[in-house]
Design goal:
It is globular and about 75 Å long. It has a seven-stranded parallel sheet with strand order 19-20-18-17-21-22-23, sandwiched between helices. Strands 1-2-5-8 form a four-stranded antiparallel sheet, with no helix packed on it. Strands 13-12-14-15 form a four-stranded parallel sheet, with helices on both faces. The chain is of the alpha/beta class. The chain starts with a strand and ends in a 14-residue tail after the last helix. It has three domains: about 80 residues, Archaeosine Trna-guanine Transglycosylase, Chain: A, domain 4; about 120 residues, Rossmann fold, CATH 3.40.50; about 230 residues. About 30% of the residues lie in helices and about 20% in strands. The longest helix is centred in the middle third of the chain and has 20 residues.
Amino acid sequence: MLDFIRINETDNVAVALHPIKAGTVFSGVEIKEDIPQGHKAALKDIHEGDTIVKYGLPIGHATADIQQGHWVHTHNMATNLSGEVEYTYCPKNPVQQPLEPRTFMGYRRKDGRAAIRNEIWIIPTVGCVNDVAKVLVRDNQDLVTGSIDGLYTFTHPFGCSQTGHDHAQTRKLLASLVRHPNAGAVLVLSLGCENLTHEQFLAELGDYDPERVKFLTCQQVEDEFEAGRKLLEECAAFASQFKREEISASELVVGMKCGGSDGLSGITANPTVGRFSDLLTAMGGTTILTEVPEMFGAESFLLDRCVNEEVFNKAAGMLNGFKNYFISHNEVVYDNPSPGNKQGGITTLEDKSCGCVQKGGTAPIADVIGYAEQVTTKGLNLLYGPGNDLVSATALTAAGAHMILFTTGRGTPFGAPAPTMKIATNTPLATKKANWIDFNAGAVADGDKTLDEAGSDLLDLVIKTASGQKTCTERKGFREISIFKDGVVL
């Protein structure tokens, strides 16, 4: 088993692949103090003010002299980043060799779209009816029969007492969920006096199949549970007609994000997902990368891969737009790594970002889409959204992701409405939290698999999951949403 990894030959730090004791020797360098797993050690003397390089890119600067073999972390380094940046398009024009698409057993919707689940969803338009939705789910599980995979609701506190942009964003997000292909049928549940009126929601939703989408306004009926039961029976009758059939993997849409990251995230799990993304997009499939703040400092990994200048300008605008979002709220743009991230070995936002964007692999960036917008371009897409796990996973679902690949070094049980596959960065986590983790990318750090082998194995698991194998979060029924907001509550 390797003790350390030097990711790029130009790096002046190496990352511990497991806890390292002082006295260990790596590449002729004696380690002078204990180094926790995922943390960095200096490969040479680094002077105060010098750039610290990892992934072949600057991830910050030394705030004190650091001697060779010593621990490099928050006590002796800091970010280099600040404010908005003027980006220049220097296209690299990466070329992908096409691969023959694999197939999965999915559902074909009447509008031609593919799905990997055939569920009934209850979408509340306002938080006031959350408990009504929960009771309808609890009391109507007998409708989950035959080809119907489940009955779920996704509650939230919004839909009323919101203004302007927030109100529009809630409306848009909920309508996008109603359109999601994994929902064979949907019951839209309203109260009747909320800001998000039935008429507004219909206008946002646009054309819809009245056999697939039903509406219930609780104030307009005597017994919402009796009325809801009748509508759910109609939903079940409609959804039950869909059966699994063979579908090309070129129709798969997979979201990618990370949460509870550690120092191995950018070395094992995220590059494994990147290898998967390259494989799927080479087959004609679609992947979506979000968490815009976790692209700051790693823009060079992404922007020059944009397929044309129009997409580049959208990506640059997305990045600086999110920075302005921070600045307009008088927040520090680059104070991002969480306490858990730091305990796991991530020191600065550049450190986190350079690892985070590994999930995007090497494919060209085909398009950039806004929050609650749905993906329309095959290939690798960038999505406007924050780093927050619940908000960004909800945004990936709303964008049309059939499933979400979620890498983690610390562990998290959260699940989005779309099947959420947890990928561990390290074997101790995968062993300890086997009830959370679906795939162990820690095998790469252990020397048991190469990144290419891990990416291929992950593709196999994605195909099985798309064909009906449940993730850990699905088996527990862990599914929830969180809506991005930015404004007052009336």
